Amino acid sequence: MEILTILGSPHDPAVSTILAHQLIKGAQAAANHVTIFDAGHHPLAPVKMDADNHLLPGDAVTERLLDQMVAADLIVFATPMFYYGMSSQMKAVIDHMGERDEQLHDDKQAILVASAPHNDFDPLKSEFKAIFDHLGWKFAGQVLAGKETTPHHLRFYPDLAYELGKSLN
Protein backbone atom coordinates (compact mmCIF):
# COMPACT_ATOMS: atom_id res chain seq x y z
CA MET A 1 0.00 0.00 0.00
CA GLU A 2 1.20 3.52 -0.80
CA ILE A 3 0.88 5.68 2.34
CA LEU A 4 1.43 9.42 2.56
CA THR A 5 1.92 10.88 6.04
CA ILE A 6 1.43 14.62 6.44
CA LEU A 7 2.91 16.10 9.61
CA GLY A 8 1.31 19.34 10.75
CA SER A 9 3.08 20.30 13.96
CA PRO A 10 5.53 23.20 14.22
CA HIS A 11 6.69 21.86 17.63
CA ASP A 12 10.00 20.09 18.01
CA PRO A 13 9.65 17.47 19.31
CA ALA A 14 5.94 17.16 18.69
CA VAL A 15 3.63 14.56 20.21
CA SER A 16 1.60 14.12 17.01
CA THR A 17 4.83 13.71 14.99
CA ILE A 18 6.24 11.13 17.41
CA LEU A 19 3.00 9.16 17.18
CA ALA A 20 2.96 9.44 13.38
CA HIS A 21 6.50 8.06 13.23
CA GLN A 22 5.42 5.10 15.37
CA LEU A 23 2.51 4.49 12.98
CA ILE A 24 4.99 4.67 10.07
CA LYS A 25 7.25 2.07 11.72
CA GLY A 26 4.29 -0.27 12.05
CA ALA A 27 3.19 0.37 8.46
CA GLN A 28 6.68 -0.33 7.16
CA ALA A 29 6.84 -3.52 9.23
CA ALA A 30 3.70 -4.58 7.32
CA ALA A 31 5.54 -3.97 4.00
CA ASN A 32 3.83 -0.68 3.11
CA HIS A 33 5.67 2.12 1.34
CA VAL A 34 5.50 5.39 3.29
CA THR A 35 6.25 8.93 2.14
CA ILE A 36 6.39 11.81 4.62
CA PHE A 37 5.65 15.49 4.06
CA ASP A 38 6.46 17.78 6.99
CA ALA A 39 4.08 20.73 6.65
CA GLY A 40 4.84 21.71 10.24
CA HIS A 41 8.42 22.63 9.44
CA HIS A 42 7.95 23.35 5.73
CA PRO A 43 4.52 24.98 5.61
CA LEU A 44 2.65 25.61 2.38
CA ALA A 45 1.75 29.15 1.45
CA PRO A 46 -1.93 30.05 1.85
CA VAL A 47 -4.16 29.46 -1.17
CA LYS A 48 -4.64 32.24 -3.67
CA MET A 49 -7.67 32.94 -5.81
CA ASP A 50 -8.05 34.59 -9.21
CA ALA A 51 -10.55 37.36 -10.02
CA ASP A 52 -13.23 34.73 -10.74
CA ASN A 53 -12.73 33.12 -7.31
CA HIS A 54 -10.95 30.03 -8.67
CA LEU A 55 -8.02 28.51 -6.80
CA LEU A 56 -4.65 29.28 -8.36
CA PRO A 57 -2.05 26.50 -8.55
CA GLY A 58 0.45 26.43 -5.71
CA ASP A 59 4.23 26.44 -6.00
CA ALA A 60 6.27 23.37 -7.03
CA VAL A 61 6.34 21.96 -3.47
CA THR A 62 2.56 22.25 -3.17
CA GLU A 63 1.96 20.64 -6.54
CA ARG A 64 4.33 17.76 -5.72
CA LEU A 65 2.47 17.17 -2.44
CA LEU A 66 -0.87 17.18 -4.26
CA ASP A 67 0.53 14.65 -6.78
CA GLN A 68 1.56 12.44 -3.84
CA MET A 69 -1.91 12.78 -2.33
CA VAL A 70 -3.56 11.73 -5.58
CA ALA A 71 -1.21 8.72 -5.87
CA ALA A 72 -1.58 7.55 -2.25
CA ASP A 73 -3.87 4.73 -1.20
CA LEU A 74 -4.00 6.02 2.38
CA ILE A 75 -3.19 9.43 3.87
CA VAL A 76 -2.26 9.99 7.50
CA PHE A 77 -2.99 13.46 8.86
CA ALA A 78 -0.95 14.13 12.02
CA THR A 79 -1.66 17.41 13.80
CA PRO A 80 -1.74 18.96 17.22
CA MET A 81 -5.08 20.41 18.18
CA PHE A 82 -4.89 24.19 18.43
CA TYR A 83 -7.95 25.98 19.77
CA TYR A 84 -10.21 23.04 18.90
CA GLY A 85 -9.01 22.64 15.33
CA MET A 86 -6.07 21.50 13.25
CA SER A 87 -2.83 23.47 13.08
CA SER A 88 -2.63 26.28 10.54
CA GLN A 89 0.09 24.30 8.77
CA MET A 90 -2.29 21.38 8.29
CA LYS A 91 -5.13 23.73 7.32
CA ALA A 92 -2.99 25.12 4.48
CA VAL A 93 -2.58 21.56 3.16
CA ILE A 94 -6.33 20.94 3.41
CA ASP A 95 -7.10 24.24 1.65
CA HIS A 96 -4.79 23.37 -1.26
CA MET A 97 -6.59 20.04 -1.70
CA GLY A 98 -9.33 22.06 -3.39
CA GLU A 99 -7.00 22.42 -6.38
CA ARG A 100 -7.33 18.65 -6.98
CA ASP A 101 -10.78 18.07 -5.56
CA GLU A 102 -11.99 15.93 -8.47
CA GLN A 103 -8.81 13.83 -8.56
CA LEU A 104 -8.91 13.27 -4.80
CA HIS A 105 -12.45 11.84 -4.98
CA ASP A 106 -11.15 8.31 -5.07
CA ASP A 107 -11.16 5.03 -3.21
CA LYS A 108 -8.76 6.22 -0.51
CA GLN A 109 -8.40 5.69 3.20
CA ALA A 110 -7.42 8.23 5.84
CA ILE A 111 -6.13 8.17 9.39
CA LEU A 112 -6.13 10.96 11.96
CA VAL A 113 -3.31 11.24 14.50
CA ALA A 114 -3.73 14.12 16.93
CA SER A 115 -2.64 15.39 20.31
CA ALA A 116 -4.19 17.90 22.67
CA PRO A 117 -3.88 19.12 26.26
CA HIS A 118 -7.45 17.90 26.89
CA ASN A 119 -9.67 15.00 25.82
CA ASP A 120 -12.25 16.85 23.70
CA PHE A 121 -11.38 15.83 20.15
CA ASP A 122 -14.96 16.12 18.85
CA PRO A 123 -14.45 19.41 16.95
CA LEU A 124 -11.30 18.10 15.25
CA LYS A 125 -12.86 14.73 14.43
CA SER A 126 -15.91 16.48 12.97
CA GLU A 127 -13.72 18.66 10.80
CA PHE A 128 -11.79 15.71 9.37
CA LYS A 129 -14.94 13.58 9.06
CA ALA A 130 -16.51 16.27 6.87
CA ILE A 131 -13.41 16.34 4.66
CA PHE A 132 -13.17 12.55 4.38
CA ASP A 133 -16.91 12.21 3.72
CA HIS A 134 -16.79 14.91 1.03
CA LEU A 135 -14.01 13.02 -0.75
CA GLY A 136 -15.61 9.60 -0.28
CA TRP A 137 -12.63 8.33 1.73
CA LYS A 138 -12.86 5.48 4.20
CA PHE A 139 -11.87 6.39 7.76
CA ALA A 140 -9.20 3.80 8.60
CA GLY A 141 -8.49 4.70 12.21
CA GLN A 142 -7.22 7.25 14.66
CA VAL A 143 -4.77 7.81 17.48
CA LEU A 144 -5.96 10.67 19.68
CA ALA A 145 -3.53 11.44 22.49
CA GLY A 146 -5.52 13.43 25.03
CA LYS A 147 -3.94 15.37 27.85
CA GLU A 148 -0.60 15.07 26.05
CA THR A 149 1.47 18.16 25.32
CA THR A 150 5.00 16.81 25.82
CA PRO A 151 6.71 13.71 24.47
CA HIS A 152 7.79 12.68 27.97
CA HIS A 153 4.38 11.37 29.08
CA LEU A 154 3.01 9.50 26.10
CA ARG A 155 1.97 6.39 28.04
CA PHE A 156 0.45 3.76 25.72
CA TYR A 157 -0.16 5.99 22.67
CA PRO A 158 3.05 5.05 20.77
CA ASP A 159 2.10 1.37 21.00
CA LEU A 160 -1.41 2.14 19.71
CA ALA A 161 0.06 4.06 16.78
CA TYR A 162 2.51 1.27 15.95
CA GLU A 163 -0.21 -1.39 16.04
CA LEU A 164 -2.51 0.70 13.84
CA GLY A 165 0.28 1.10 11.30
CA LYS A 166 1.10 -2.60 11.44
CA SER A 167 -2.55 -3.48 10.72
CA LEU A 168 -2.51 -1.63 7.38
CA ASN A 169 -2.34 -3.73 4.23
From TrEMBL:
Which SUPFAM superfamilies does this UniProt record tie to the protein?
Flavoproteins
Q: Where is the NADPH-dependent FMN reductase-like domain?
A: 1-141
Q: Which Pfam families match?
A: FMN_red
GO terms, molecular function: oxidoreductase activity
Q: What is this protein called?
A: NADPH-dependent FMN reductase-like domain-containing protein
| Gene source species | Limosilactobacillus mucosae DSM 13345
Q: What is the lineage of its organism?
A: Bacteria, Bacillati, Bacillota, Bacilli, Lactobacillales
